[in-house]
């Protein structure tokens, strides 16, 4: 897991919105574009590429279409890592 890619992926509000959409259900790029105002197909492709490099999303070809899914295992691993830095409640 590359944390730099993870945080880069989360730094953009459009990518965070894509992750929120994929949390609800798996989507094709066309379905994602319908829900994102003002985002072009090339821009979405760029965002999806960054999310894939961070392993936050996976893709699967279904005939002519590609369906994207949220990769919860990477989200869980990253949260576990970050929680290591949380201070204990001990005084």
Radius of gyration: 15 Å
How helix-rich are the residues, as a percent range? 55-70%
| Overall pLDDT | 90
Q: Name the CATH architecture.
A: Orthogonal Bundle
Count of discrete structural domains: 1
Taken as a percent bin, the fraction of beta residues is: 5-15%
Give the CATH topology: Arc Repressor Mutant, subunit A
Task: Please state how the strands of the largest beta sheet are arranged side by side.
Answer: 1-2
Structural overview:
It contains five helices and two strands; from the N terminus they run ααααββα. Strands 1-2 form a two-stranded antiparallel ribbon. It has one domain (3-83): Winged helix-like DNA-binding domain superfamily/Winged helix DNA-binding domain (Arc Repressor Mutant, subunit A). Helix content is 57%, strand content 13%. By secondary structure, it is of the alpha+beta class. It is globular, with a radius of gyration of 15 Å. Helix 1 packs antiparallel against helix 4 (41-53).
Write the layout of secondary structure elements.
Layout: H1 3-10, H2 13-24, H3 29-35, H4 41-53, E1 57-62, E2 65-70, H5 72-83
Helix pairs in contact: 1-4
Which features would summarize this protein structure in a list?
single chain, 91 residues, alpha+beta, Arc Repressor Mutant, subunit A, two-stranded antiparallel ribbon, 5 helices
Short summary of the structure?
Helix content is 57%, strand content 13%. With 91 residues, it is an alpha+beta fold.
